[in-house]
Amino acid sequence: MCGIVGYIGPRQAQQVLISGLAKLEYRGYDSAGIAIHDGECIDVKKKAGKLENLSTLLDGQPMTGSLGIGHTRWATHGLPNDTNAHPHATEDGRIVIIHNGIIENYLTLKEGLQGRGHQFKSETDSEVLAHLIEEAYAGNLEEAVRAALAQVRGAYGIVVTHVDHREIVAARTVSPLVMGVGEGEMFLASDVPALLAYTRNMVFLHDGDMVVLHDDGFRVMDLAGNPQERTIEHIEWDAEAAEKGGFDTYMLKEIYEQPQALTNTLIGRLHDDTGEVNLDINLDPGSFKRISIIACGTAFYAGLVGEYLIEQLARIPVEVDVASEYRYRDPLVSENTLAIVVSQSGETIDTLEALREAKKFGAKTLGVINAKGSSMTRELDDTLYIHAGPEIGVASTKAYTSMVSAFLMLALWLGRARGTLSEEQGAELLKAARELPRLVEEALAPERVARIKEVAEKYAHARDYLFLGRGVNSPTAYEGALKLKEISYIHAEAYAAGEMKHGPIALIDENLPVAVIATESRLLEKTISNVQEVRARAGKVILFLSDGDTENARHGDDVIYVPRAHEMVSPVVNAVAMQLLAYFTAAALGKDVDKPRNLAKSVTVE
């Protein structure tokens, strides 16, 4: 989820690119770079770290030219350093590209290109595109880009320029691109905020679109070259609203980004033809006798889902530890232990210290991490990146569901490798995993969101909340309670539903809303029995049911339907409903959901 800016027109491109990238730095801040065509050659300057590092470099070495492309990076393939920063150029510097997304088959393509004499400078998947375009180029840049893209699988927003052409060629599949239309000038970006200082007339490109930009206009076609009509839309948002994509808050924007984030997590890793999962992990799955999952907060609850999935599918004993307690309880660790640390930022100090403790006793270590190049990734034996992109809202949303999806893939990988999961079972779960982006998009349908908002507002002034779930959705209840506490400041507790009668049932009265996750599962009948215990004590039941379950709807005071999903993937779909319930409750109470009191995005002190 990086940031792209492009410009062609009468202005000096450097100013346009840097100001646009500044508006997109929330999309990536590992490195930044620009390429500018001065009429004779294309000059490239890039720098690791935040955009200010590149700006400082340009203060001493300004670039001239009125055609250029720029990028701010959130690293996927390759460490965040100067070499891996975008743009990437061919060896002769005549073709320069920027790429957002992931090329699934880059390794096969790279090996073929190297066999044909191409020399690579970076570790990125993106550089493959520059060499493919170079190989296909015969005087027409548009045709060369089209030929190159025909060879790749994956997600991309790609922007290309060539020293012999005063034009920018761009294309997208999954990764967003928007054009800005000016008077005698054209702009391009991955999001609207980068362009608002220059124009409010925008063209939103569709999946499979290719566009050629000139000083005086643009042409849009599909990847086969057929012309496409795209409407110019006038944007009324102010700059702050635009940065949030038209949403009121970053948190709501990030809730709606989850189909894209899940696509990024899963893409290139699920292989329908073999029923296998490829996680690019070098650890030996047969060498572990036990697994320890170590995390804090939301990541801890993702780890609890991981515990359930791994034990069910791979039949390995798993324990989940709060990172802040792990090293103080003298844990039993050996060389046959796999310690999995989970962190969005990769900087959480409690989790980092727990990682070091596990390594000290000989454990192999794996990270489920969002931020590439973070402290944890430098100390881990291996890393499973979730690729959720930058998360601005303090209360985690898309990182949580991406972590849960990563654990599903890890459980599938372990189960297939260890022989505890049949090919048929693996194929069934792989198909269910592939459905997740669509199911989450369906969970965000306007009528569903409106219903959750209605229920949230009804109970917004409750002093307390209780969340219940069973099996793989017990952690979903814990996460739902945490979200509500974090942003609405309502006291909320969560329990495995069967535990309610062992104490918490004493809290239930007519003033207590009880949110129950009762979606389709092996334990649904038992969950409904627990619901009856709540109703017998006058508790107000908010029932989350799978689509079509009208039989059990009569047991709830308020019913919220979610898309029907395979039990093993349902925690991802159900978490979206929990997020929305918390969000609309906090909004009804007038809370600042992006910056809840007393909380920080990355906790780097013990």
Topology summary:
Layout: E1 3-8, H1 13-23, E2 31-37, E3 42-48, H2 51-60, E4 67-73, E5 88-89, E6 95-103, H3 106-115, H4 127-136, H5 141-149, E7 154-162, E8 168-173, E9 178-181, E10 186-189, E11 201-204, E12 209-214, E13 217-222, E14 233-234, H6 239-243, H7 250-256, H8 258-266, E15 270-271, E16 276-277, E17 290-295, H9 297-314, E18 318-322, H10 323-326, E19 337-343, H11 349-360, E20 364-369, H12 375-379, E21 382-385, H13 398-418, H14 423-434, H15 436-443, H16 446-458, E22 464-469, H17 474-488, E23 491-496, E24 513-517, H18 524-535, E25 540-546, E26 558-562, H19 570-588
Parallel strand pairs: 17-18, 17-19, 19-20, 20-21, 22-23, 22-24, 24-25, 25-26
Antiparallel strand pairs: 1-4, 1-10, 2-3, 2-4, 5-6, 6-7, 7-8, 8-12, 9-10, 9-11, 11-14, 12-13, 15-16
Catalytic activity: D-fructose 6-phosphate + L-glutamine = D-glucosamine 6-phosphate + L-glutamate
Function: Catalyzes the first step in hexosamine metabolism, converting fructose-6P into glucosamine-6P using glutamine as a nitrogen source.
Domain SIS: 279-420, 455-596
Helix content: 25-40%
> Which value, in Å, is the CA radius of gyration?
25 Å
Strand content: 15-25%
Dominant shape: globular
The oligomeric state is: single chain
With helices defined by DSSP (H or I, 4 residues minimum), what is the helix count? 19
In terms of structural class, how would the helical and strand content be classed?
alpha/beta
Widest sheet: strand ordering: 3-2-4-1-10-9-11-14
The overall pLDDT, averaged over residues, is 92
Distance between the first and last residues' Cα = 30 Å
Note poorly predicted spans: none
**Beta-strand segment tally:** 26
Main β-sheet, in a few words?
A: 8 strands, antiparallel
